Amino acid sequence: MLISVLLFLSVPIALKAVSTMLHRSFRDVAKSLLVSLSIGLILSSLVSSLIYLFFPSFRWEDSIFMIPALLTGNAISGTYFYAILFGESYPSALGRNIFTVTLATIITVTGYVLLLAFGLA
Amino acid sequence: MLQRRMPNLLALAFLFLLSLMPRLLWLSSLPRPYLTPDEIIYPQAGRAYVDGVMHGDLTSFRLNAEHPPLAKLILGALLTLIPGHWISDIDVQRGLCAGLSSMTCVIIWLHLKRYGYKVAFAGWLFASIDPLSVRYSVALLDVAATMFLTLSMYLALRKRCTSQSNSIQVGIAGGLAALCKYSALPIFLGTLFLEHVFMTSKSRKSEELAITTFSSMVVILVGNPLFWPPTILGYSGLEAISSSSSVYSLGPGIFFAFDWLEPALQSTAQGRTVFYLSMFLSYVCVFPFKLFVESIVPWAVLGCLLYNVKERRQLSDDQLSLVPWVVSSILFFWLIGKSRVEFYYAVMIVPSMTLLAAIMLPLSRRPRSC
């Protein structure tokens, strides 16, 4: 559970850092990330539903390389939906989301490695 | 006053009965028991809780301590009132489930009525005949929590005229939802927080959010004896909860979807690392519920979203007011590992999506202001 806890702590830190670096409000950055992520997840549900419908024996665990492709597709399309529905620039929202996710990942991994190094993980 | 309200009440009763029919038909066709062990344990727990409350013996709340007591207490009260030789415990439980699920449909109607009868009818119809809502109406705790959560959102968005008493009502309804199922609490608090983050033009102020959160916490602490001090209860309720809460874990200490990464990083055997890594990727990248196979509501939401995107139309304030609830439910069930094995959790996502879909339909009209 440690990684999840670190991730939950690092997301607001990353949001704050991105909002400061890009001179945007915390609300804008958080809204963009959370809504894009949710729409992306709905689209992921659509893809998995269709795959389940047409290929019932398909297992995601066996096609590990398809999963990042799904993630990328959903992230891009989720952000596109967000940008239109909230009247924002698409490249700006996409860049901001990618930056936030990258930063949150770096903070989480660094935190985990440090905890491992100090024997706390 | 009553004469003026009578036609409205009759209309609501009619809508309730119409929503009830498909649920009762479906539930009566299922084998007894169907949802095991829940359909066996909940009636026993409900009876034990009611007996315990009546005799001042709160040790009965140790039974099924991993879930909060309210829905089981309501069931226990019904079982005590209805003579056992008339109808079986499972049938009473299913009747209650169908009733609570139909109440949710009526609240959706009430919520949408201010956008016009066409919108209200569309939303009510989506909720009433939605295969997912009908199929999983067998899950007592989820259905009860969904009903109270929908009620809290109805109260929160009813007039958008925020006041302290309205904030307290919203908090009480949210607290009651969490007293039926703990999952409702993060969704409720997440919605409040996101509403604050989204800050639409009619959002609540921080003070009102604090009052809502505080009143929901008071309801949860007062309503669940397991949170009472051991001096009153006679035992540690928190210990009872923690000893029963192993049901929430999945696999090697997996609680959240991201937890699969930890065994993947720590494992020394290559085969296991690949397995844990593939589990991690599938949990994080694939949404747990196949909503588009089981429900009609996501299709309506997606259709409306695509229509808005095609027309390059932004979301209005009323549509935005529902986005925090949708986002909070989706993110919560995505993060929780157990969503992958308990598909009926999806029943808690449907009302928010139904309301959003109905408001986004092209037949929507401006709501009456307060």
Form type of chain A: flat
Low-confidence segments of chain B, ≥5 residues, pLDDT <50? Answer: none
Distance from first to last alpha carbon of chain A: 10 Å
Please give the share of residues in helix of chain A.
over 70%
The rounded Rg of chain B comes to 21 Å
Radius of gyration of chain A: 17 Å
Mean pLDDT of chain A: 88
Cα end-to-end separation of chain B: 21 Å
Helix/strand order of chain A: HHHH
Which structural class fits the helix and strand makeup of chain A?
mainly alpha
Oligomer: heterodimer
The number of distinct helices of chain A, counting runs of at least 4 residues, comes to 4
Q: Count of helices of chain B?
A: 18
Secondary structure: number of strands of chain B? 0
- Could you tell me the strand content of chain B as a percent range? under 5%
**Biggest protein-protein interface?**
A-B, 40 and 45 residues
Described by strand count, sense and barrel closure, the largest sheet of chain B is: none
Secondary-structure element string of chain B? HHHHHHHHHHHHHHHHHH
Residue fraction in strands of chain A: under 5%
Residue stretches of chain A low in confidence (pLDDT < 50, at least 5 long) are none
Topology readout:
The complex is a heterodimer of chains A (121) and B (370).
Chain A: H1 2-21, H2 26-54, H3 66-85, H4 90-117
Chain B: H1 2-29, H2 38-55, H3 70-81, H4 89-112, H5 117-129, H6 131-135, H7 140-157, H8 164-180, H9 184-198, H10 206-223, H11 230-233, H12 237-244, H13 261-266, H14 270-285, H15 291-294, H16 297-310, H17 317-335, H18 350-360
Helix pairs in contact in B: 1-4, 1-5, 2-3, 4-5, 4-7, 4-18, 5-18, 7-8, 8-10, 9-17, 16-18, 17-18
